[in-house]
Amino acid sequence: MKAPQANKNVTQVPLSDRIYQSLKWSLIIGEYFPGSDLSIRSVAMKMGTSTMPVREALTRLASERLLQSSVKRSYKVAELDPKRVADQFFLRARLEGIATLLAVPNMTPSQIDELEALANMMERDIETGSNENYIVRNYNFHFSIYAASQNEELFWSIERLWAQTGPFLTQAVRSQTMPDEWRILHTNIAKAIRSRNAELAAQLIEKDISWGVSTFESFTSSAQSK
Amino acid sequence: MKAPQANKNVTQVPLSDRIYQSLKWSLIIGEYFPGSDLSIRSVAMKMGTSTMPVREALTRLASERLLQSSVKRSYKVAELDPKRVADQFFLRARLEGIATLLAVPNMTPSQIDELEALANMMERDIETGSNENYIVRNYNFHFSIYAASQNEELFWSIERLWAQTGPFLTQAVRSQTMPDEWRILHTNIAKAIRSRNAELAAQLIEKDISWGVSTFESFTSSAQSK
DNA sequence: ACTAATTTACTGTGATCACAGATATTGACC
DNA sequence: GGTCAATATCTGTGATCACAGTAAATTAGT
User: Fold this and answer.
1) How far is the CA of A41 from the C1' of C20 (A)?
2) Does residue A44 register a pLDDT over 80?
3) pTM higher than 0.85 for the full model?
């Protein structure tokens, strides 16, 4: 008889997967900037692994259009292309609106409680200027809604778009104070969901994204004039 | 002085890319069925290459959710999961509707001519029962519209969804005759675009997809009763 | 000191190998 | 004949190597 061998291989999840997830998350929270180079060997060195799993991770990210890859040049985060970024935010607005419409009737009261708690903490994050916390809570806020849409493909598509826009958006968020009228936006979204007003909730979600676009645009215009 | 060396390396496009494109296209046109196994070594043997480029291609396809990959089991086309497929078609309807709305004002008369020509040939394909031709022309018809949306991210997302639903849909198309009322649908879509009626065009596109869903459902119900 | 050619360093790509987990096959035993 | 264990086969995974492009640094020539 063979014992289950509890912790023979702790992982069971491939190294390439973990590297992929780690890099994707870094993109989402804006740890990489437009134009950043990510070569296989340099990342492998940083991760302390061989090139192989990094190579798979970067291949995957490039295939999902989260990184650019030229013929024999280093992988890199896409440079800022206004048209392309506008297309991405347009898609985000549509998909996240759709996800919200689907999600509202599905969310349980306790889930909405967590949403409001997050919204409160996010307001406090803005006041205290802790942008790092805000970014993570903002992710959790939005994606707990999108998860409630119970459409995995939709969820995945939106997450992919966040990873694409992350390098542009977060940089803008970090370098800018937030307009007052937007501070209570997430609280209002939670309220709309609690009252089961799906249309309003979706509308506010899209407004949130349009805020992202506007800060992004002000950021790029100030960058152009440097 | 160095001559340009015209055809030193004809390719300049990596092997892994070509294999990836080839497999993706095979998925779109329904050459693989749900549950089909695609192991690295077997595909490499078939392609006449080493395992390396195939490995990258399959990794990419799995990362885009076009293939399933378990821990140390073979890559495979996803089995039929009604909920999941329904989610995919729902997304297709939304995204392809959006793309059509964007595309209609952008399409040139000559592009619309080509659309009508395709629609005519597709009607003939149905009459002569040449499903292979129909499938390819259907792809060209739809994606020349989506290309006119001039939103690359949207185009890519839709193409990805086609690769996901291809194994389910095409199998249904192949094994079934088409209802009369749908034969002239693509011609009507072209007409709507020519008259710049974006709303109608989008509506008809979504109707086309809902036809796909219905044939898919009739196919699965007949498969369940086997 | 400046330009052009050469060299060096760095990049992804394809191939090959060793290994361990998972499945299917075979075998032995009752 | 049926059940369970041993074995053989097939799977993805990680590592390493050689190679050919690309870009940066250096050197040579004026």
Assistant:
1) 26
2) yes
3) yes
